[in-house]
Every structure is written in structure tokens, then in C-alpha cells.
Amino acid sequence: xxxxxxxxxxxxxxxxxxxxxxxxxxxxxxxxxxxxxxxxxxxxxxxxxxxxxxxxxxxxxx
Length: 62
Fold this sequence. Notes:
The chain is built from one helix and four strands; from the N terminus they run βαβββ. The protein has 62 residues and is α+β, with helices and mostly antiparallel strands.
């Protein structure tokens, strides 16, 4: 749960229909003060550690 993290790392929502993900994103932001991003179809999210991430448009080459 986000509340248990001391530094509250950013959240990337990667599953679900757009409307549901947007609603969950808004809820997490308003209720928990979380930094939330909804990934779009085809985006590749690279987790860098320490709460950092990058988003690349397009599919992974891996």
C-alpha cells in the first residue's frame, strides 16, 4: 500500500480500461497524494529504481 512507503514512490498504472485507470489514478492522487501516471497502449515503462521511471512510446525491442 502506498501509505506504508516513506518516500511514496510514483505509481504507474499499466492494466485496465482507460476510464477505470483514470478513475483509480484520480482517487490515488486525491486520497493518498500519490504521483500517478497511466501508461498508454504501446508505451514501454522502464523502472530505474529509487522511484524513477522512463516512458518510451512504442514497443520494447526485447
